[in-house]
Design goal:
about 250 residues, membrane, Probable membrane transporter protein, transmembrane, TSUP
Amino acid sequence: MEWVIFMIGFVATFVGTLAGSGGIISMPALMLTGVPIHNIIAANKFSNTISSFSSFYVLLKGKQIRVKDALIILPFPLLGGLTGALIATSLSEKTMTIIALILLLFALLLNFLNKPVQKEDHLEKTPKKLFPLLYGIGAYDGMFGPGQGTLLMIVYMKQGYSYLKSVGFTRFQTFVSCFGATSLYLFQDVIKWDVTISLAAGSLLGAQISVSVAKKIKLNQAIWIIRTVTILLILQLVYSLFSGGGISK
């Protein structure tokens, strides 16, 4: 059982780091193992906290992104993650699935209509117009999650960030929002540690390998990877919505 969960964490985080939406793999797969849903949610948030920070740190150490740029955005995903975790029980799963579909369809439309232009230099400062988006996506991650990473990748690349910088900031925001959500789940004592540790170990390995792969991916390849994952995610959410099963947080 532990090795199955380890592999789920590895595959989900490998895909999630490159294009976002690793949760669309890990959530249904973990449900098939019979783990209770509240334990799955907590385990995913904890493992994402560990794995996303590790991949962010690799890119930070490699000077793909700067500390001060990351610190500027820190309050928004942190508050978003806390907000999302607090209101998670007030919205139905069906409502959140519909919200996810709307967001992803809009992001996919933007991605096809206007190709991101990669800038080689650092943006002098993160545009303030991004702050509400970063807070909103962080709240969505705390509440539900599927598509969060893909949405962030598209948002950053549309601002002119390179693919690697987009990966770095996406992983940083995932770390911060998941840290906020995990703090509450720890307080509520819903973490099943045997599942969580196995998932986190697989996620950590998947994050490290995917960062190495990401360094070899060109902008055009990255765009099509993200588009493909977005389309698959939309199809999965549509199936979930109409099948009545739903995708869990």
